[in-house]
Design a protein that fits this description.
heterodimer; A: about 120 residues; mainly beta; six-stranded mixed β-sheet; 12 strands; about 0% helix; globular; B: about 110 residues; seven-stranded mixed β-sheet; four-stranded antiparallel β-sheet; 11 strands; about 50% strand
Amino acid sequence: GNSVTQMEGPVTLSEEAFLTINCTYTATGYPSLFWYVQYPGEGLQLLLKATKADDKGSNKGFEATYRKETTSFHLEKGSVQVSDSAVYFCALSDALNTGFQKLVFGTGTRLLVSP
Amino acid sequence: GAGVSQSPSNKVTEKGKDVELRCDPISGHTALYWYRQSLGQGLEFLIYFQGNSAPDKSGLPSDRFSAERTGGSVSTLTIQRTQQEDSAVYLCASTSRHLYGYTFGSGTRLTVV
C-alpha cells in the first residue's frame, strides 16, 4: 500500500539556520503530496501541497518540490525562526473511488529552533 | 462553524468503560475523517464518512470501535470496553469536494487508566 517515510526527529536548529526535512513516498499512480504542521497544543494545519510532478508548493517561507524520479517531497526553509518550532507531517493522498481522498501520513518530525 | 470542533478536549477513563468522542465539522463539508495519533506514531486512519455513510472504515482497529454521522454533520466515535492501548489523540478532519487538504480539529486526548 501507499506509505510515507520521513526523517526522525527531533531536528534542533539555531534561529536563521537552513532547514531540510526529508520525506519519501511509495505510491501507485500519481498522488498529491502535502506537508502539515502541528504547533504545540493545536490541530494540524495544511502548510503546502503539490499535485503533480515538478510542482513546487510554498507557504510562509517553506518550500517543497514534488520529485517523481526520486519519490521525494523534502521540506526546506532558508532561515528558520523560533516560531517555526512544531511537528511537521508529510502526507500523500490515496484516492478513493468516491472522488475523495484519504491522506496517508508519515510519523512526523519535531523541529526545535533555539534563539 | 468557523472550524472543526471536537469534544471533549481531554478524557480520562477507566479501563473497560465506554467513551464517546464528538466531532462537529465545518458547515457544508460533506467528507469527514477520523484519525488516531499515538505517542511517537504518525496519524493512523480510522474511518471516513461521505454524508452519513462510511465507504471506508478499514482503519478501525477492532469491533470495539464504531462511528456514526447524522444529518451529514456531527460525528461520534465510540470506543467500547476501553483498553490502555486505546490511549491516543483522536483527530477529526473535514473537507468539501472542491478543496484539497483537510481542516483538522484540535483533537481529543484520551487516556485510559
